[in-house]
Each structure stands twice: as structure tokens, then as C-alpha cells.
Amino acid sequence: NYPLQDHLRQFCSDLTVFTFSDHHPFNQKDIVEILKAYNNIIGKNKILVTTEKDIMRLKDFDKSYLFNEIPLLYITIRTVFHNKDGDLLANKINTYLSNSKRLIKELYKD
Q: What are phi and psi of 88, to 5 degrees?
């Protein structure tokens, strides 16, 4: 079950899905496939949707200019912590930084 796909299906009559592994390095074949599928969809009301993570890799692709004429949207990534885990992590980071500052002061006090 893919929540993003389920969500997008509410707003479109046709959804073409490409699935790539995590951290997939996009290559020219991937881009050609994506653009071919996009161009084969009849009509003008069409967009490409990807994740924030993947759009960064698509922009790094040496032929990213191929997407210049296509509406390309991305879903932002948001980190959510359960219970008080976010507070716990923030406290650990703050403690580490405080200890590091003290150590640096001790090293350079002379």
C-alpha cells in the first residue's frame, strides 16, 4: 500500500507510477522512460510528481534541462517524532554541543 499513490488517485483519471530503489542514481534511460510516458499521456492537464529526495537527484542529472518544459512537483519531506523522542534527541544534541564547547574552551584557554 502506497499512501502517496492512493492520495494522488483521488485527483487524477490516469496515474503512471515509476518505482526506483532508494538512492537510485538516475540515468539517461530512466529519464527517457519517464519523459516518454509523460508525452504519451493525452491531454494538457498533466504533471510529474516525485519526492523531495528524488527531485534533488533529478536536478543533479546532467540532462536535467529536459524537464524544463514539464510541470514537475515534489512532495516535501517532514520528520515527525513519536511521543517525546524529538525532545529527547534535542536534549542529547544540546548536551553534546555544550560538552564540546567546554572541551574546546579547555583546550584553548592558554
A: -60, -45
Amino acid 79: pLDDT: 84
Mean pLDDT (10-residue bins), the chain, 110 residues: 86 88 87 91 89 84 79 86 89 89 78
Q: Nearest to residue 70, comparing CAs of 55, 80, 84? A: 55
Beta strand segments in 1-110, E: 48-51, 72-75
pTM: 0.65
Label residues 33-53 b or e (16+ Cβ within 10 Å = b): ebeeebeeeeeeeeebbbeee
Neighbours of 58 (CB within 10 A): 19
Which residues, 6+ apart, have CB-to-CB distance to 64 below 8 Å?
Answer: 58
